[in-house]
Write a structure and sequence with these properties.
The chain is of the alpha+beta class and 189 residues long. The chain is 30% helix and 38% strand. It has a 7-stranded antiparallel beta sheet. The chain is globular, with a radius of gyration of 17 Å.
Length: 189
């Protein structure tokens, strides 16, 4: 379970740290309403973004406390490095919905269940499944503007046959535009 919880959290960090993203809530109104909602979404500002991630909760049931502390410490050290990504004008022109879809598709068997946007406020839920049959739920809430975001993410992972309980890893992801992309800089996927 520890491996799957870390893998799911890593996918989530990639998803949120690679730039702002937003998509309308999928509901019973159909494709026309979804398209109308997408047309109202703010655009991402192209440029270079700096991202930082911090763990706010780390529970892996069944692990001895010293091993839990070691795993958390390793994960915090990995995340302590601020990362930078470049979002091109072409990527930004696709809007947040398209960016979210590409990032989710790049993270295995994950799908966006809901995303609700009200101004800069955002909340949503993403469901994932690992190769071993573990199910993950990521619930997020925060703010996302055209040039910055501050999102708290609660991740819960349950694995078939695991009796100790679900793994729970919560984190905060902050991203901000720091300027134009440097010439020849790598573009975010």
């Amino acid at each position: 379970m520890r491996h799957h919880a870390l893998k799911l959290s890593a996918a989530l960090m990639f998803l949120t740290a690679c730039g702002d993203s937003e998509t309308p809530k999928a509901d019973d109104r159909g494709a026309a309403a979804t398209a109308a909602a997408a047309a109202e979404l703010k655009q991402i500002e192209p440029g270079e973004y700096e991202n930082s991630i911090s763990i706010t909760r780390f529970e892996l049931p069944g692990l001895p406390p010293e091993m839990l502390a070691e795993v958390r410490s390793q994960m915090e050290q990995t995340m302590a490095v601020q990362t930078r990504v470049c979002i091109s004008p072409e990527e930004a022109s696709g809007g947040r919905e398209e960016r979210m879809r590409k990032l989710v598709q790049g993270n295995g068997d994950c799908r966006v269940e809901t995303i609700n946007v009200d101004g800069d406020a955002i909340e949503g839920r993403m469901l994932c499944q690992t190769d071993s049959g573990a199910n993950g739920t990521m619930t997020f809430t925060g703010t996302m503007a055209a040039d910055r975001s501050d999102v708290s993410i609660a991740t819960e992972l349950s694995e078939p046959g695991q009796t100790a309980g679900s793994a729970k890893i919560d984190m905060r992801v902050v991203s901000r535009r720091v300027g134009d992309c440097a010439a020849g800089a790598g573009i975010a996927p």
